[in-house]
Amino acid sequence: MPDAEPRRIGKAAELRLADYLRRRGWSVIxxxxxxxxxxxxxxxxxxxxxxxxxxxxVKYRETPRSIYIEEEKYIGIKEYAExxxxxxxxxxxxxxxxxxxxxxxxxxxxxxxxxGTWYVFYKHVIxxxxxxxxxxxEHEVE
Length: 142
Known about the structure:
34% strand
């Protein structure tokens, strides 16, 4: 199966991120059927701490490059976050880099292509992304 290796790598990235969040005191739920196997668009991870809810879609990349999300999945995750009163982010782990990059879900741009409609997180947006750590500490009260 040609998709097995990318799925394995993606699942490993999600599990590492879930563990990273737990070690920082977040309650974490990882969607067991995230990605292509789910019948409804679900985020990869939902993290909660002190009344704050984060909805996270996780991508692993060898190098920073634009990321395309199918329209149905993008809108589904956006609605999921809105219904939960959550903040939605694309979280990118780039091989060899310390930490994670976090991009607000709203930063994607809608594009109609020959193979459908996609929401694109362009490379220049990913290059200027905040660190996930800075997102995690936003709104914290000492």
